[in-house]
Write the C-alpha cells for this entry.
Amino acid sequence: MQNIHLRFPKGLKKCVTLSYDDGKVYDRDLVEILNKYKIKATFCLNSKNLDKDTYVKSSEIKELYGGHEIACHTYSHPYIENMPIGQVILEILEDRKNLESICGYIVRGMSYPYGSYSDEIVSLLPSLGIEYSRIVGSSFNYDIPQDFYLWKATCHHNDNLLENAKRFLLPNHKDNLELLYVWGHSYEFYNDNNFNLIEEFCKMLYENPDIYFATNIEIADYIKASKNLKFSADFSMVYNPSNLDIYLDVGGKIVKAEKGKLLRL
Ligand SMILES: [Zn+2]
C-alpha cells in the first residue's frame, strides 16, 4: 500500500491567498497591482458603507473585484462579540443579501469585523450560509487551518511580508501542503505610502509554476472536497463525489481524482 498525500490543483504543494477588508477606494489600486501579477484575493465588504465617501461604489463592485472573491464582513462593521445574537444574525444575512444582489453569486466567506467573535457566533455561521471566517492576528506559519471558522492568516502585510514570502518560496521536500495567507486593509498602503511593498511581494510570486493562486473560498472548497473523498478499505480505489477534481500524491506519483468518478490507484 502506498502513502497518499493531498496536493493542491495540478499536484502543487504551495498555495497563496490574500484577504483585504472594508472596501475602501484604495482597493482599486490594490486590485490593479494584483491583476497585473495574477494574484488572487478575497475582499470582505460591509454593504452599509458602500457608496459612502472613501468607500467603493456598489456600481463598480462586480467589475472591480472580478476574478477575486467578495465576502461578508457584516452589514455595518459593529463589534459583534457582545451584541444580541439576533442582531449578529441580521448583520450577516443583510450583508450577504446585499452583496449577492450586487455580485450575482452566492457569498459564502467572511471575516470577523474588528476580529471580534464568540463561540456562539462561530457555531451559528454554518446555518447562516457562511463556510469560513477569518480572525485577526498572524500565525507566521503556512498551515492549512484546522477550523475554517477560526482561520488565521500567515501574516498582516506589515509583519515582515517579504521575509515570510522568501521563506515560503524555499523548496518543500516534505509531504505537507503550504499556504501563504496575507491580510490587511488597502487604506493601510495609502496611509503608510507603501503600495510598493505589495507590488514587490507580487513580483516575487508572479507566474511561479509551483504555486496555486486562489481566493479564500476556493481553498476552503478544495480542502472540504478532499476530506469527502471515499477510499476503499485497501486504498486501491478512491471515489470523488464532489464537483472539483482533487489531486493526490500516491507513492510519489501525482494523480487526479476526477470529480464524480472512481479512480483505481
Ligand atoms: Zn474591518
